[in-house]
Fold these 3 entries.
Entry 1:
Amino acid sequence: MLKKTFLLISVLGLCMALAPNNHRVVRTEEAFVFFMEDSVRVAVNLAYAENDEPDHYQSHVETPVCKDSLCYLVEIDLFWDLLGNFKDYRLPPEAPLTKFDHEKFDAADHVKLKKILANKTSLLRDYDMKSLVDNSVKRTSAVVDATTGATSTTIKDEVVGGALYTTHRLWHIVNGEAARKILQHTEGFFDDSLLVQMLRSEDYHYQYYALTKIPIDATKKYLPELMHLVAIGDEYVPFFAVEKLPAHIWKEKDYQLKLVGMIGNLNFEMQNEIINRLKGIPLTPESVAELQNVSPKLTDQQKVKVKSLQKANQ
Amino acid sequence: MEAKRRDFLKTAGLSSGAFFTSPLTLFGKSPVEQARSAAKEVYQVKKYDTDLLVAGGGMAGVCAAISAARNGAKVILIQDRSRLGGNGSSEIRMHICGATALKGQPWRETGIMEELFLTEAAENPQRSFEIWDFIMYDKVYSEPNITLLLDTVLYETEVGGGEIKKIRAICSQTESIYEIKAKYYADCTGDATMAAQAGADFMRGREAKSRWGESLAVDVADNKSMGNSLLFMSSKHDRPMPYTPPVWAKKYSKKDFIHRNIRGLEYGYWWLELGGLMDIIQDGQELRHDLLTILFGVWDYIKNSGNYPEAENMALAWVGMIPGKRESRRVVGDYIMKQDDIQNAKLFPDRVAYGGWPLDDHPPEGMSSTDMVPYISIPLKAPYSIPFRSLYSKSIKNLLMAGRNVSVSHVALSSTRVMATCATMGQAVGTGVAYCVNNGTMLTQLGNDASHLSRLQQQLLRQDQSMLGVKNEDDKDLAKKATVKASAETKAGVAANVLDGTNRDIMDGNSHQWQAEMKGGEPWLKISWNKPVKISNVQLTFDTGSHRRLMLSGDDGVYNSQERGPQPETVADYIIEAQTKNGSQVLAKVENNYLRRVENLFEPVEVESIRIKVQRTQGDELARIFEVRCYLEEVRGV
């Protein structure tokens, strides 16, 4: 779906109209500008979607990628989420990414590059260019009168083959100062409405980040969102959301029943989390009955725990 | 509690070399207190005079003692426990990591470490940590030049004229005070206890990026360190094994394990780690208890969260009581190794050992912040060399170091700290001391003089030390003047390789070994001289699969993925025959060898040629020999 959208966009030349997440961009404003170590200027814009909600950051970057006399200009549009996580890139049709000897990136190269750029802990973070090149192996260019060192074998999975310098350069633009400044910039305008927007989003990065931003004494205010995340949050988010539920709601009839009712639809570990948290809490007859309803969906070991909950509340 | 300890650290100052009233307390009453009160009447004072005193019987200390002893130095090894092996012993049970972290590369440590690895793999099929202790004990006890003093705690180091004059140590079980004078002292304590007592310059905490331009360093220097870990083992029973944790155990839920992988249940986890925010030496008592609260809390989570149904029949079988330490003091040497030396694999002129573990730093918070990733590990491209200048003190003339307390930055330590690397340093230090004793050389002279170093490197290489970029140039090796022929050879393994000066795969496209098909019978190598030579020692180096990991581990995944027992590539049975003017003569007949380096010793004999006939391998279809050396002088076998 996403790929089709991109294709359509490049064909129509409407690069700015839709964000990588398919949201319509209504306006952009300059968020900040910074300079790479070699003075390349990078301006990052904040894009707003409908309802004037901040949606993502983007930047049109033009940077030379060089090694000795092998050099070319990379022109690329980069997209980050509001927390500085890389989301996507787009290229002008007239300036594709190329590898050693100007061979164009193929589809697999793009998939690999996007995966690398999305990995904040890639070893590209901790290796400078000179350390990545194996100078004991030289490659000679047929196009340019030059040679370059080959990619060291141990790091070849971390770079697009034949495009070591491009990969390294782009990774540092995407995940270096820009990522840090984006987070800072977002924190500068972070408010309750953005908090709620993130809690309600479908992106677990946003969900988790927002959870950490809920003040300890204000969890009650976000109860509907928290209950929602307990029930359907992605990845490890439900385990943090459940932690944020105020203690008293476990004893309140309606909430208790909702939590018990969720058990049947939760994943195995989250089921255990709820069952364990019910231990020692007085359960209403409705909750006890609901436990009976969800019981067929449980393992034998879980059933033993549920039985002991029911017994304790007879 | 932790906040208080942090405050304490703040006031402690960094790397000042100054310490507090009793810096060396281990557990309970300090040894010096014990010594003062008890020595008056009951304790006997025993005096020793020796070439080398090794303090600390972990992997570094064991290898330092063995190598010095084998090279002719008299050694006293003191160890504060009843068992050798330190972090690798049955008391802590960390498996011995090293350069095999460079996956697909052939850099498993050789030398004494390899001898221990291979012996354990062959002689400990029962996978017992206690037996592993005794394999080390046997190696140490079998050296006539070593006096091993177990349960013996160093408590005093006397210094005069910039060098250590003597040390005192106490053994409460035997009511003994040992007063030991040595020409050289090797601090293999891990905590650099002896160096601290001697007033040697040392570093502690984490240096800032700006100090040495290390990109992986912290922005602002602090007194924090990597933490300690406590391990456990569990076993499976034929019935459910309920578990009730102590009331003081911590409580954990799934959210605490998003960055911490509970993979197997049979062996604990390195990330059961804590202490980087405390004084990791002085706060040891509290720290151990805090680690136990974590350990039992994690086991409670495994047993009772419901998330590990497979844990139902499992029960704790062993719980460590000695936290394994990663970091404390680092003694300043003539050279301090840094991030770049490791990441860019600098080849030092005074290289005497190597490492290959990633730059694997652990945030000091450990399990006190389960929302943080417990490690940042930067894989290396290649093994890096370790200079001799980082293995002796800059400020105390006769003090050396091996292990985690050597002269490295915090960032460099994140790689050099693992035990197989520490072991290679131990062998370098022990051999270096023997060289100094035999040649009347000062440590700093040895570290900075190319001709001395070249001789030390040749000595180390001959003894199969883990070395990078050093070829056999030993003038005493009579095989260098010989020619070689073989009954058969492969394209990748020509006979001439056994005399090419390189005794292992170094990833240069050459196997550096002779190979011959075993199915053709008993392939042989013949080494011939133009005119007869007198020899008394044929040293052979075999292939033991150095691209594979090989260590005792409680982790099923780590253990079961290894080739256990004798390594299949190894030549098992062979005969060495000599052609003399009086006809042929058998010089050695060996069965069931599993070692990499073997010295075959015999009465001196004048030979025209020798023939090494391979009768059996430990399973491989090819006979494989890396190197043949021949010597006249007598060298003790291993």
Entry 2:
Amino acid sequence: MMRRLLLVVWLLAGAVAPVLAFQPPAAQSEYVPVKDLPPVDQLPAAPLLVAAYSFIWLAAMFYLWTIWRRLGKVEAEMRALEQRRSHSNR
Amino acid sequence: MKKAFLPLLLLAAAMFAYAPVVIAHADYESTMGLVQKVMYFHAPSGMVMLMSAVVCGVASALYLWKKDPAADRVAIAAAELTALFGLIVLVTGPLWARKAWGVWWVWEARLTMSFVGWLIAVGYLFVRKYGGPGSDKLGAALAVFCTANVPFLYCSFNIWRTMHPMTTVVPTLQPGMRGAFWFSALTLFLLYGLLLTARIHLERQRTALDQLYLAEED
């Protein structure tokens, strides 16, 4: 008798366990303002994303500009040197 | 290449301008949301940085072995670009981490090794600029060390436990994210190729100028 009772309890527990495991989350008992959330959750993502993308643009443009400026200087110096040589040859 | 440079540069600029549209249409990652979209430029910049460090190291090794000045020109150009893309990685990473991890920076293996790799590239540039005679060979040796750091950096999460996402996230990207990622990667690789070409041209012109000065002295 006792063994049969234990078997029924065990089977019931086995049948109820999945039902308990898939219970919906508890209903919200109070509203939490955004300012009360942890600092990381309050942080907006958009400015960080825009900052990252803008930085890449600025870095690439700045580097391209430095190459163009350095190349301009070297080529101007080459032209001046060639002019000086052609004048001295005359 | 000279004729194709400007159209390719315009194409890269157009791709750069269009990239936010492609990225905006990519799927949102479930846990990080919007900020995860930094990945579309952060990860390809890291890939370019590592590739540039390898280019610099291989060119430097060739220079040490064959004494070929063309290899030295490639090495110095690649070192500058390693520093540039390294800086992009080191700036965009913390912007992502601030929201995803709650901190700007963590001294864990992946981040620390990226920082060290960038410092070596910057160190190479300082040696080349202020090292005086013989700095080309000293710099080349430093660049070989920078390349030796690359496999450790790439496999750092396999060797040490790190917070950084694993490199397996790229080959396993879902179709909704894959297109945007490879579009951004292609844009950055194209930009890298163009910047490398322009920088090598600058170094070639400097060599020509030095030869003109030498010819004048003779």
Entry 3:
Amino acid sequence: MNNTKNVPEKKSNTPILIIGVVLVMALLAGWYLLSSPKTASNTNTNTAKANTANTGKQTTIPANAPLGANPPNQQGSPTALVTLEEFADFQCPQCGVVHPIMNEIKSTYGSRIRFIFRNLPLTMHDKSYDAAVAAEAAGMQGPNKFWEMQNLLFVNQKAWTADPNYRAVWKDYAQKIGLDVAKWENDMAGIAAKSRVDEDLRRSKGLGVASTPTLYINGVDVPFQQMNVASLKQLIDAELAKAAPQNQAAPAAPANAGNTNK
Amino acid sequence: MDEPVTASVKRSIAKLPVAAAIVALIGLADAVYLTAHHYNVEPVPCGAAFDCEMVLTSPFATLGGIINWFGPETMAPTGSVSDIPLAAFGAAAYFVAFALATFTAFGDRRMWKLFGAQVALMAAFSGWLIYVQAALIGAYCQFCLISAATTFTLFIIFVISLFIRPKTT
């Protein structure tokens, strides 16, 4: 190799070979990393979570956990047999991914489930605490307004997250959903909306929930891999079946939830 | 370049591209790991002083997020082109840097100039990403810092190579 002459003719194929091998190895490594977590144990916590959800109640919500904002932001029926409790951050991309999934679950099951949304603005997301307060302040003009604001914040997450004038963007949302904007701004600055967020935060702290989105179904932690419509339906159906023999008297489902009464 | 160079100088020049190729491999491994992380949404193991999730799930971790930051808002559904993680571009860049360094090590000196231009751009972008972590996200992830370190190392290797040019006799 040291004898490289100054005459550059007759290029060897060795560099191309080496580069090709590296490319193949990089692609294989990427493919392996992408597929491994579902089969092998990449991180202990997640497999532990997965096992828990599959085998039984280990990561359950302790009875003495802080209650969170009261009343919580909830949809469905408060007396439903299955309760979903989601902890989410408005700036967390995965929460934005899970959002439409939750919407589909809510519309599928209607009043057969109780869906609770908890604010868990992670401290290092610069706007998510304010976003949670903005949603809570909207909720002070009616529970539906909370959900409308929550929906807009998630659907447009990338837009306002990257916008230095995000408050103006939120103001547009407030107008769009028909809020009394002056009152909404006032409530955002006030104590009540903030303290609801803080109470949710206390609950997540008490439960040891540190990442978003975190979802409990009847108190059992659901691993992120199962936060898709098919897996969630399985889990919810299983919970409904478990509860059904004891108590058939679930409230009637609304019109949009009638198609899955298997 | 046509002038004969002494054997010792030639050897030291040849060592730099080899070193660069090895460093680029480290960067490539790091970037491939982060790219895979992005798509399977597995949390990466993170030291106590870091907040990897904060950085890797921030808008700055994807192409769309960066574009949104600089340009007009464009709604980017997950799974689209905008959702391509920066780490994937990093992986591609490290691979190209590796290829250029390898060609140089095997005698194709023209590739070294391309290598230099590329790593200069990479170093500038890495510098900006460190600023983003420090000033805009307020958190660091060690895998991102490893990537920045490898990029800066590549750049430094190139700069050193400029100073030990073969002496013409």
